[in-house]
Amino acid sequence: MKKRMTAAVLLAVLTAFGAAGCKQNVGTPEDNAVVEQPEEGGENEKTLSGKVFGFSCADLSNPFYETLEQSVRTALEEQGGRLVVKDPDGSTETQISQISQMIEEGISALFLCPVDETGITPALEALKEADVPVVNVDREVSDTGLITAFVGSDNYNAGHVCGEDLTAQRPEGGRIVIVENPDISSYNERITGFEEAIADGGFEVAGRIEAGGGQNITGSLTQMVSAEPEPDAVMCASDQMAEQVLEVLEELDSDDILVYSVDGSPVTKSALADPGSPMEGVGAQSPINMGKTAVKTAAAVLDGGDYEEETYVETFFINRENVEMYGTDGWQ
Question: How far, in Å, CA of 60 to CA of 173, rounded?
Fold first, then answer.
């Protein structure tokens, strides 16, 4: 039965915060440090035996989606399910075609992160016609009436915690550059959270750089950083954007500019662990817990049980002070 409610899933890492000195909930699902307690009724029962699930995300070359897929696969296999994975490689047309193939193959449900939130609609209509439940993950589709449930991150908070830290680091305000991709709603939520956190802090947006579709931002960022006065900070909508920013700042020897982003990838956390890096903090999300939650949701849907139509996995701030606890060798 559907439950119309929004729930923030509290990460196990936060409930176990008192375990000082231990890395929390990092790496792949196989090396995840958090041991979850079995639920009543027996967590290890093969409740999904014989069922085949589809997995289609925007681009599996993105480490976030690779980890998300591993998490979903592990959780399904623990319950006897099987996962069929298709990689559209950033093409909406390919994603629609691959979903059609999976429908013909008889999948029981689909885990979907769309390449394009609106362009995926024809595939959603086909899935609904075939009576295949859709658990939409990470990027929410435009037509939510065609999905069964959504599991994502609290993206607004991920951006907001970055803005809160910036106001603490620069209490007198300053000039900032924002690197974004307006075509992705989750990225917009992150930037909105960041901007609202710094709204009364005396900050001026010196420039905005669009970085959609793998666009190289080197030229635009170099020009903005070289201008006088130099920006005080750069806020990035994703870690992949932040990686480009860090490369530019290293080339320009601009180590006084604070860099923030959202994701929590091993690359970004490694930069945080480097005392000489301008990386200042990241609003971290957890593809591991997102995958586990998506599988629990799909299992409840197929079993006719209660499930939440919208679930937002909690996000949190990682900086130099706590990065060692989370580790740099994997995702949380």
Answer: 39
Identify the CA nearest to 123 among candidates 95, 151, 88, 143: 95
Q: Could you read off the pLDDT tens digit of each residue along the chain, which spans 332 residues?
A: 444 344 444 444 333 333 334 445 444 444 343 334 344 444 456 789 889 999 999 999 999 999 999 999 999 999 999 999 999 999 999 999 999 999 999 999 999 999 999 999 999 999 999 999 999 999 999 999 999 999 999 999 999 999 999 999 999 999 999 999 998 999 999 999 999 999 999 999 999 999 976 677 899 999 999 888 999 999 999 999 999 999 999 999 887 999 999 999 999 999 999 999 999 999 999 999 999 999 999 999 999 999 999 999 999 999 999 999 999 999 99
Indicate if 211 and 118 belong to the same structural domain: no
Q: Provide the domain limits for residue 243.
A: 155-284
Q: How far is CA 144 from its chain centroid?
A: 19
Q: Rounded to whole angstroms, how far apart are CA atoms 104 and 81? A: 18
Q: How far is the C-alpha of 318 from the C-alpha of 316, rounded, in Å?
A: 7
Largest CA distance in the chain: 64
Give me 291's structure tokens.
């995958």
- Asked whether residue 330 is domain-assigned, the answer is no
Both structure tokens of 89: 């490689």
Is residue 22 within 8 Å of residue 276, measured between CB atoms? Answer: no
The CATH number of whichever domain residue 241 belongs to comes to 3.40.50.2300
Q: Last residue of some domain: 284, 304, 324?
A: 284
**Could you tell me if 174 and 65 lie in one domain?**
no
Whether residue 129 is found in the same domain as residue 204: no
DSSP secondary structure letters along 26-42: -SSGGG-S--PPPPTT-
Q: Which residue has the tokens 């375990």?
A: 19
Number of domains in the chain: 2
Query: Is residue 324 included in any domain, yes or no?
Result: no
Residue 321 lies in a domain: no
As given in the structure block, the two tokens for residue 160 are 């907001």
Amino acid code (one letter) for 198: I
